[in-house]
Amino acid sequence: MLEMSYIREHQDEIRNVIERRHVKVDLDGLLQVDEQRRSSIQQVDMLRAKRNSLSEQIAKMSADERQETVSQVKSIKVELENLESGLTELEASYQALVRDVPNLLSPEVPSGKSDADNVEVRRWGTIPKFSFAPKDHVALGEALELIDFDRAAKVAGSKFYFLKNEAVLLELALKQYAINLLVAEGFSPIKTPVLATKTVLDGTGYNPRGAETQIYSIENSDLAMIATSEISIGGYFSGEVLPAASLPAKFAGISECYRTEAGNYGRFSKGLYRVHHFDKVEMFIYALPEQSEAMHQYILSIEEKVFQGLEIPYRVVAICDGDMGAVAYRKYDVEAWMPGRGEQGDFGEVTSCSNCTDYQARRLNVKYRTPDGKTALVHTLNGTAIAISRGLIALLENHQTEDGNIRIPQALRQYLGGRELLIQK
RNA sequence: GGAGAGGUGGCUGAGUGGCCGAAAGCAACGGUUUGCUAAACCGUAGACUGCGUUUUAGCGGUCCUCGGGUUCGAAUCCCGACCUCUCCGCCA
Hints:
Layout: H1 4-9, H2 11-21, H3 27-60, H4 63-98, E1 119-124, H5 137-143, E2 147-148, H6 149-156, E3 162-163, H7 166-184, E4 188-191, E5 195-197, H8 198-204, E6 223-225, H9 229-236, E7 241-243, E8 249-258, E9 277-287, H10 292-309, E10 314-318, E11 330-338, E12 346-355, H11 359-364, E13 367-369, E14 375-377, E15 379-387, H12 388-398, H13 410-413
Parallel strand pairs: 4-8, 7-13
Antiparallel strand pairs: 1-10, 2-3, 5-6, 8-9, 9-15, 10-11, 11-12, 12-15, 13-14
Helix pairs in contact: 3-4, 5-12, 7-12, 8-9
The structure holds one RNA strand.
């Protein structure tokens, strides 16, 4: 959420941002409601002031003096009730409209229409050349008895999977690897609730309602399942004022993530790439405003470090305005090489990191105390350390051997009893 | 699940209808003292918001978990929700 006074005073900028992000926002409607809302507030406040001062006088009056003033205040009360109910309605539509206005865009954000216009920033690693026909992770998973999609479909439907045997060990190893790396960087590991209230979902910018929601809601409750621990960690400090010295506060969130993937059937959704449920180690940072840009680069550098350690080639992509959600001020993806993707192999998104500036913090009401004793909104940032499902795709496909085994990269071996190959004969 | 107690500012905690945006203490900020640090002393201070001011200056409104209600007037009384604690029961 942006500050209304900012929206009002920078209408051209806001219009521009809305256009660049291809979001539907009724800015004129918002400005109009805001106008009405503020004039209604003035009327209500004036009437309340009158009531308050009369009530105060009543306290000092003798019993028989009171009569007239009391009835006067009674009539103000009736008038006030009408105005207040009008204001309540205006407030509701104002809230609904203002939350649709997306975050500002960093001047560094490239412009474009869709993900095709994202800008490659750099590449790392050498794309593997196989002397044999490489398999994709679905075939590998089946052949090595690592993943079972068919039986998962019986249990929970499509886009679910059983992870089995060495794949489970691999998942645990990947988590441990990522967590240890983050702990060494000073992140606090945190395991979060996997359900969160709709207030928290809204605050982080995840809309639990509507046909296109990514969020599973729990029936007969105010709860929904989190799509990422970004949501629960964002709620962690909501409504709090943090000491400035505690910032940046760096969290390594560990949770399962649940996504409906509504409307995504068939589209780049083979195997583990797009699933309803996966484990993820997530970075989340609460930062001072002046730190956030550097923290964003820092998160990106850790994402790269994770994949460098896994010896997986990747590229870093700067997300263009037309492909960015409403919350991020600036965003990068890391796309790992996936030999089984498409005909020749292709890059596929494995991580994503956003600087949300104060957009989430304003709605979640997370502040810090400035040196002069005032409060100000923090900045929030998030990024994927490793999403296990997609990490597995890259790992299995890149490190497959001719005889159908999987080579374990050096950095991961200590978490797998030192083994060099996944399947031990 | 049953019974009871409770939720007040950054924190601890007083306040049972008007003198309360709220005592006191701690923390914070400014200053004095000090070789430095600490301590001591003095002072300043809540958040959000509307109008105004345009480099400061005010004047209002709202906020004592949240939502309703009673009242001219609610932190205070009533109802509901949520959360916390204690005891009992049940259970990974």
